[in-house]
Write a structure and sequence with these properties.
The chain is an alpha+beta fold. It is built from six helices and 13 strands.
């Protein structure tokens, strides 16, 4: 029978401010923030341990009941492993690396705000030290430097600190078993945690292409686009060539599926805040049009022989 081991690490999250004086907080504010913290752990696990030890799964975040009248939220990071070759010490190390790096990343994002001339040094194995031009330093787990450059993680941490945008909520803190482990982010730190919610243009190009029509779209009010294919890849695109579009709508230009168009194709590549890219395509001009071959009529004749009844 398989043995499943659990290793849990407990910590507390506290939101504070005048709006929370009665220990009451809107679920619509709190729930997305906690879900975002859970996402941050997931993305941290993926970024730092793409090949997890044995059967160790990504750490999960669970909530624990707190004392009556307190708004501290007790949370548990739960690491689960079904591989008997990985002991409790290895699992604790796995969970500790992830959580330590997450806390270090939060500290780093806060510390870097407004600083210049920052240098990065490795003074001891497993840790890195940031030093600014004034000699101030911050030492955190090495994985923290990976996480602060990870798009999905940054979006998740942005969500975790978003309650600070609510009037009357001044700070959020994370604490472990001792006050020495306490990390506080307040409204002054909040700008450092915001991520740009817009996709960022990273490349634009225009080229001549030959595409095959898959779907004709004449209803511009539907928001749907024409569908084309090129070299086995199917994509959607708007057509900016109004002379061509008006010809198709009026019936002067007959276009159907499998027709081939020579086009001037614009491609814009955007980077998403959470990672990954998307490509927006637009046909600027239609330079040629070739109708699809028309299938000949099929001959269903069976000759003149009569079938005996």
């Amino acid at each position: 029978m398989a043995i499943v081991r659990h290793v849990a690490e407990e910590f507390s999250v506290k939101y504070d401010g005048e709006a929370l004086a009665n220990h009451v907080m809107e679920v619509r504010t709190l729930a997305p923030a906690l879900l975002a913290l859970g996402d941050a752990l997931k993305y941290a696990s993926e970024a730092l341990t793409p090949e997890k030890q044995g059967g160790t799964s990504a750490p999960t975040l669970r909530i624990k009941a707190t004392n009556e009248g307190s708004f501290d939220i007790d949370l548990i990071i739960d690491a689960v492993n079904s591989d008997q070759s990985v002991g409790l010490l290895g699992m604790a190390s796995f969970a500790g690396i992830i959580w330590g790096s997450v806390k270090g990343a939060i500290q780093t994002i806060k510390w870097l705000r407004g600083r210049s001339g920052v240098r990065l040094r490795e003074l001891e194995p497993g840790f890195i030290t940031y030093e600014d031009e004034n000699g101030s330093t911050l030492t955190v787990p090495a994985g923290s430097s990976v996480l602060i450059q990870n798009g999905p993680f940054r979006v998740a941490i942005d969500g975790f600190t978003q309650p600070l945008d609510q009037e009357g909520i001044d700070e959020v803190s994370i604490s472990g078993t001792t006050d020495r482990d306490r990390i506080t982010v307040d409204t002054n730190d909040r700008p450092a945690f915001r991520t740009d919610s817009r996709d960022r243009l990273i490349d634009r190009s225009v080229r001549q292409a030959t595409v095959k029509v898959e779907t004709v779209q004449l209803n511009t009010d539907s928001g749907r686009k024409w569908r084309f294919s090129e070299d086995g890849e199917t994509f959607t695109a708007d057509i900016s060539d109004q002379r061509f579009v008006m010809g198709v709508r009026s019936g002067r230009t007959a276009v159907g599926a499998d027709d081939t168009l020579g086009v001037e194709l614009e491609e814009e590549t955007y980077r998403r805040p959470a990672g990954g890219v998307r490509v927006l395509r637009r046909i600027l001009a239609v330079t040629s049009h070739q109708h699809a071959p028309v299938q000949g009529e099929l001959d269903y004749g069976f000759g003149t022989q009569e079938f005996e009844r």
